[in-house]
Design goal:
single chain, alpha+beta, FAD/NAD(P)-binding domain, six-stranded mixed sheet, five-stranded antiparallel sheet, 27% strand, globular
Length: 363
Amino acid sequence: MSKYVVVGAGILGASTAYHLAKAGHDVTIIDRFDTGQATDAAAGIVSPWLSQRRNKDWYYLVQNGARYYPTYIHELHELGESTTGYDQVGTLALHKDERSLTKMYDRVLKKKELAPEIGELTMITSAEAIQDYFPHLSNYDYALHVSGGAKVDGRAIRNATLKAAEKLGATCLFKEATFSDKLYVDGEELGYDTLIVTTGAWGNECCLGIQPLVTHQKAQIIHLKAKEPFKQQPPVIMPPGTQYFVPNIDGTVVIGSTHEDTSEFHPYPTAHGVSSILDQAFSHGEAMKLFAVQEVRVGFRPFTANFLPSFGYIPQANNILFANGLGASGLTVGPYLGSVLSEMAQGNELDFDVNRYQLAVHN
């Protein structure tokens, strides 16, 4: 039995620890749980097929991430963790005109040849039909419904994963980890055979003899609530642009998010950030002006220089894995990439070339 230590308990680190524990290893996962962890704040949209991003390496990860979710959720359920925050509710992509709708339909239909998990595609061409899915929308006559789309609550899936890992024998420590020539937890040395570092936006603090090219964006995410619950579970709503709505059957609607470049860690909402989200949201549905504000969450998304997840063994150390830079795709990719890191840490062969995601560091 090998001893693995995972530092960083966002969805990526939690999944890595879970998969290693499932393989029967001695696993410890450590996190100080700073306010602003991306996973803890996020409401994820698992619909990568709708993206127009053309980077094939990025798409490989997100497509496999979406495909892996049903298996992952089934395993968590088998371990008694049913509150995962994951639900395949479908996705509704809004369009201003028929031409853009048709272009998206054709693009996604082609992707479906290699990704049948996309499910059924339905083109909608009336405001009334769109409001049947989400009654608070306005200004849209065209939409594409993708039945395979899903939503996932970051906090819930992370907590379920950590609990499952513990049931399989992993140890979770909510403490400070530091590294010089050795790993210390609250000042006491902790030995390992392999160390996996998945510290997200705080990746530059690791002092592993490298300077990873990790930056972060601040994301503010608003939780609103309608006066009445929905009569049926709405799909995830994706208007044109970067905003999204994640409705829940109880009438809550999670709306995100800002994309604020920053070098600081101030995990507090700002008036400007909240105002910008709400102004944009009201342009998609004025009825939401009457919703109650429940809370505003703040998270820091980690990015690498090329906006592509980066992972691998650090230079000159064959027993330290570093993974970071999942960005806005963290909840889509995290469970799957955690399984990949587990295989890498155990020395198992993978079915794709990990050199496409080489660790990016300062020279």
